[in-house]
Backbone:
């Protein structure tokens, strides 16, 4: 089974390894990671992250996620909603703080 490693730059949290295809929010919640999750449906923006490395190693955003990202992180090409991500490779992510 292939695994994917998620790291948290500029954070004291250790990298975490999950099976390929795993849902990011489900797995990070179990680890008590630095990422927060609210609705898990891609509409609240609580799980807004910036993918520092490995953006192409994640499932691409759906049209609905793109619409939400236009509201929560306009112009940020590295932004994602963590609850919508399924892992297909390694990535480094940071929480985007709201203004």
Residues:
């Amino acid at each position: 089974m292939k695994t994917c490693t998620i790291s948290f730059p500029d954070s004291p949290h250790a990298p975490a390894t999950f099976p390929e295809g795993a849902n990011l929010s489900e797995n990070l919640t179990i680890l008590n990671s630095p990422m927060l999750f609210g609705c898990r449906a891609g509409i609240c923006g609580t799980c807004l992250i910036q993918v520092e490395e490995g953006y192409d190693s994640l499932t691409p955003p759906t049209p609905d996620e793109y619409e939400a990202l236009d509201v929560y992180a306009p112009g940020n090409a590295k932004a994602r909603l963590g609850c919508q991500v399924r892992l297909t490779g390694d990535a480094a992510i940071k929480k985007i703080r709201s203004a």
About this structure: The domain at 3-95 is CATH 3.10.20.30 (Ubiquitin-like (UB roll)).
